[in-house]
Amino acid sequence: MPVTEDFRNYFVLQCIGNTVSVLIGDFTGTEKLISLAKDTNGDGKADEVYEYFPEIKKLTTPFKPTSAFYKNIDVLKKEILYGDIFTVNYSYKMYSLPLLKAKLKTGRDVYRFKHGYSVKMYDPDAPTTIAGEFFFGKNEGKYDLIFTTYYYKLYRTKISPPLSYSVYCKDTTDKYIADIVEELLKMVE
Questions:
Q1: What pLDDT does 20 receive?
Q2: Does 2 reside within a domain?
Q3: Count of other CB atoms within 10 angstroms of residue 142
């Protein structure tokens, strides 16, 4: 996983099948830390934890994540989905659920794709360039929800996060993600 050059933090939610994982790149503290917490049984608590300290090249497996950003998996899941964690911390600005819902309400740049919908975020200064995109869908009782930020602008400067995905949920059975996807599907159908 990348260590950011400007010490910005990153946060990623991943749900594959029934496993929910949260990745935290914590670079604002005294020790740079990349932390991965996995919930394999759906109780919102970390069942597996891996932490990597890139400066000393050390991998540990503590009982729970030592990052100050970690509360529990369910809280982080919501903060990543709604974008709260990106606005209150020194991190990259990532597209989140309120923006997706606002985009769906306008009905613009929403495209049917395979078993769901793709929503494009175009650069206002270069209208044919995609700055980010969302995907959500349901297939055989499993849910997909993906938030991608290729870049965003700070004044005239393009800033590309080292990890473009902030949410990557594929074929998940997680109830919270399922409820969100069902709500989004109702907005477009």
A1: 97
A2: no
A3: 19
